[in-house]
Amino acid sequence: xxxxxxxxxxxxxxxxxCDERADRSFRRATLRPLLxxxxxxxxxxxxxxxxxxxxxxxxxxxxxxxxxxxxRLRERAExxxxxxxxxxxxxxxxxxxxADVLRYEAARRxxxxxxxxxxxxxxxxxxxxxxxxxxxxAAGADPAVAVFACHLILARALExxxxxxxxxxxxxxxxxxxxxxxxxxxxxxGQADLLALTRMILDQWDGVFAAPLTRRGGxxxxxxxxxxxxxxxxxxxxxxxxxSAERALEAVDHVRALLAAIGAGDMLPAVEAQRxxxxxxx
Length: 282
What we know:
With 282 residues, the protein is mostly helical. The chain is built from twelve helices and no strands. It has two domains: 2-105, no CATH class; 141-279, no CATH class. The chain is 77% helix and 0% strand. The longest helix is centred in the middle third of the chain and has 38 residues, at 101-138. The N and C termini lie far apart (96 Å). 19% of the residues are buried. The model has no long low-confidence stretch (mean pLDDT 77).
């Protein structure tokens, strides 16, 4: 009986050993194609190394590092971005690539030629921009003047919008009366200017303007507040104080957002023209 137990235990140990060996072989076969590529993660590399005797760890890790480096050098060479030192290193790591040297060099010459043309085109565009800037300055253009023009455009679009909202809320007759009263309270004399219009919108926000301005583009009070702040900053700016192109572009963006919110897209081309003028001063 004891002999029979010994036989069964031996068979069981052999079965377990065979299963473990088969599992290691399967994991080796699965991970081996990834060796030397970026697809092999550090954890997978550690697992692959653990499947071999300890003395082979350095060789496996070295082979993987050389494979990844070779792949990186080949990618740079294919794009023509390699240096002479990298080409020598690639040929050392992968001598079979010597047949591709002429192709790699042609790729590098093509890349250098493209970069040269792009630099020339960029330089030409910069000269043209400088020429346009000189012409704009000679014609009296200025970032502050461009923002002021955008505010005038916005005021022309905003007044009919405000009138329509009063009429929609109170009816045609009462809407006109309410508009006139709100304009008077806002300090408008004759035709309402941007300051008066923005004040009317903010004063009547909850009852008249919250729904349409929140629904159209979802700008809310923030866009109106921003335009009002920009207008006040421009109006109270000392004459000699500089007005940067970056600040001017921000103000124009506020105008564009509010025009889009009130459905005055037909005014946007005129604003874009002023925006292009401002970009000359960047």
